[in-house]
Amino acid sequence: MLPTDNRLRRRADFATAVRRGRRAGRPFLVVHLCSPSAVQGSMSPHAPGESASPARAGFVVSKAVGGAVVRNRVKRRLRHLVRDRLVRLPAGSLVVVRALPGAGEASHQQMARDLDAALQRLLGRGTSPGSGTGDSGGDAEGRPPR
């Protein structure tokens, strides 16, 4: 189970993460990560005098993934995977993990691999083996960085 302080619940928080954050897509999921600096301008559930809020995560699993049983299984797997990786995220950041239609048939290991790769890309740790330069001059499709 994901601790209460680490859950995204409000629609505005989901919208902030998706609209202001960076995105990394993988075969089974898409991860949106909004840095703490972009979150500061938005409404925060914590009082101004409190310390930085913890990283919070939310999940989007549509009916395209499968029926209710499949969707709930995918959400449980994603919650478990993200819970173990919260320590990697900067305090105050927002993460939205959106499951793609193939996630219902994916194994736990495949989803873990996709989540790790997406977070690694978003957090800027390391470079892809074929990049050569190590700069963030865009992605594989030639789109400029955000």
Automatic annotation (TrEMBL):
Per the record, where are the segments of Gly residues compositional bias?
127-139
Alphabetically ordered keywords of this record: Endonuclease, Hydrolase, Nuclease, RNA-binding, tRNA processing
Q: Which domain of life is it from?
A: Bacteria
Region Disordered: start and end of each range? 121-146
User: Matching Pfam families, A to Z?
Assistant: Ribonuclease_P
- What is this enzyme's catalytic activity, as reactions? Endonucleolytic cleavage of RNA, removing 5'-extranucleotides from tRNA precursor
Which InterPro entries does the entry link to?
Answer: Ribosomal_Su5_D2-typ_SF, Ribsml_uS5_D2-typ_fold_subgr, RNase_P, RNase_P_CS
Tell me the GO molecular function terms: ribonuclease P activity
Q: What is its EC number?
A: 3.1.26.5
Similarity comment: family membership: Belongs to the RnpA family.
What does the UniProt function comment say about this protein?
Answer: RNaseP catalyzes the removal of the 5'-leader sequence from pre-tRNA to produce the mature 5'-terminus. It can also cleave other RNA substrates such as 4.5S RNA. The protein component plays an auxiliary but essential role in vivo by binding to the 5'-leader sequence and broadening the substrate specificity of the ribozyme.
- Share what the entry says about its subunit structure, partners included: Consists of a catalytic RNA component (M1 or rnpB) and a protein subunit.
Q: What is this protein called in UniProt?
A: Ribonuclease P protein component
Q: Which organism is it from?
A: Streptomyces meridianus
GN (gene name): rnpA
